[in-house]
Amino acid sequence: MLTKFEETWKQFLESIEDNLNNFISLKYVGILLRHLAEKGQRKISRSLPRGCSERSPNLVVCKNENIWSQTLSLYLCDKSQPLPFHDEILTCSEDTSIEQVDIFLRRALFNSCGKIHTVINVDKMSLTLCEGIEQLLIKYQRDVHSDYRLVFICGSDSENRSALISSLDKYRGTVFLMEQIELCTCLLHKFQNTSQSDTISPAASVDFEK
Prior knowledge:
Layout: H1 2-20, H2 26-38, E1 57-62, H3 67-76, E2 89-91, H4 98-110, E3 117-120, H5 127-143, E4 150-155, H6 163-168, H7 180-190
Parallel strand pairs: 1-4, 2-3, 3-4
């Protein structure tokens, strides 16, 4: 009986090995997907401005009317880098879900790729969401080993009404706020059309300043 069982078990293992030869593991699927995602993308290597730190959250409080200018100043301090990508900024509201913030934090802390990740309007989050984010930050900071760049920006008018801002106060930093004229000049330069083509006319060609 034992001999027959051993033979059956051996045949089972051999059949599994033969079947696995026709498949690829999830690990290599992940490597392939990451390679495809990085292929053709411009290399990003942003640096946080003075007053902010890598490998820790950063809280920036400014006037409500300056939130977007403050955000742009964060990215335009290094004029050699492009404008922020869609996956670098999360604009929050009362309807923002914990799942959205969770995905954003995972991207920021574990796969930053040299980017700066910014959460805007932190003061508009619900109390339940603030508590959930605080727990996620505590959990992820224990496991992260990358030089991530994470910034939370909120308006000063309601900073005292947010539980998350209170917990992040120890990470409070300052970011130089660029003047409106300088911001407009930088944006005009970034939006200039530098492509040359004899057959395709980009939409920007209708604006003679681009």
